[in-house]
Amino acid sequence: MASIVKRKNKYSVVYAYFDEAGKRRQRWETFDTNAEAKKRKAQIEYEQESGTFIVPNAKTLNDLLNEYMSIYGVNTWAMSTYESRRGLMRNYITPIIGDMCLGEITPRMMDKYYRDLLSVKAVSVNNRKPTNEYLTPHTVREIHKLLRNAFNQAVRWELIARNPVLNATLPKEEHKEREIWTADMLAKAMEVCDDPILLLALNLAFSCSLRMGEMLGLTWDCVDVSPHSIDAGNASIFVNKELQRVTRGALDDLSDKGVIKKFPPCIASTHTALVLKEPKTKTSIRRVYLPKTVAKMLVDRKAEIDELKDLFGDEYIDNDLVFCTSNGRPMESQIINRAFNKLIKENGFPHVVFHSLRHSSITYKLKLNGGDMKAVQGDSGHAQMKMVADVYSHIIDEDRCINAQRFEDAFYSQAKAPEPAIQEVEEKETGTTTPESDTAKILELLKNPETAALLKQIVSAL
Could you tell me the pTM of the whole model? Predict the structure, then answer.
């Protein structure tokens, strides 16, 4: 059993174990909060009872990272995060500094390591050619984030006294603004698109701010396009899963965590698997309401799939997917991307990636609602509203000149308005009027029928 001991502002989990020589020893693991300590205590006790507990005893950086991944990563990370960080370890940490003893790692050495990484060639992942020949500052920062967290864990386990990368010098990262299509450009693309699947994808990505995996993982049980819902303006989709291709190694390491369904492979020897899985964050689970035009497109798509079911009969593999091949199998992202790139090339549109349509969507919604970021966050599924503010605040800035004009019209123009009234008082005091004011007064009098008739009589008498 383990216990929690408070030491100053820290909380330590204390437990006993037997070393390799069979001698009973005690270990302290220190945490910043009582909640973290309680979580670790429960994990230790569960693993001790099930016989799976391993005492953290890392000597090299490789040992630390392996223990960190098996204890912390497996229980905390989503599958995509696990895969990407395992790739960083395998490609850029283990081959370079993995054999170093923990006690030999210093802040100065880590500064040099980060600097030298910029001259390391990027490694292809899942047969995808890297976009840059050498590691970018962004990748170096991701490696730093992984190491910082791992060393923090080593401090909690009391394997080292301090984190050697806390004050590291990192390469500067220049954030390039993502190029996106405007709403007018997207409307033109939809107009010339003759691929019905791509057209539906364009409309869903733009109107619902969907990620590619969310769109391809959409199933009919999460689509409400009934005639009553469409007429009432309540047609919607419920986003609660995503389609993703993952490595079988990650599936085994994480024990299929978060996986809803695994699809059978087309090729038996493949080292990856196509799965329907839970979204990365809880905020990604959301209901998004559909414009009527897009809802009717989904109605047509459902009718098309029903025809395919009748045509293929028992050979149709019904996975209940909105986006699927003619025999019902899942439709992967490269099919949409190929069609999208073909549309761009044939029509001379500016080249963007499909994911940029999500950014176009959020941009357009912010302009429509005057910058209501909370409402947009509900559609986009961002984990924090700050992410919307940081990425899209420049969109609101574009309309600030309009605010200045409104300020002029509403405040400063009214401040100047009393001048005609002063002039009118002066006219009354002096008994003088301008020709324009006389004409206006006569026209006002003529609006009264009795006054008009009286003036006519006076004119006839003259």
Answer: 0.70
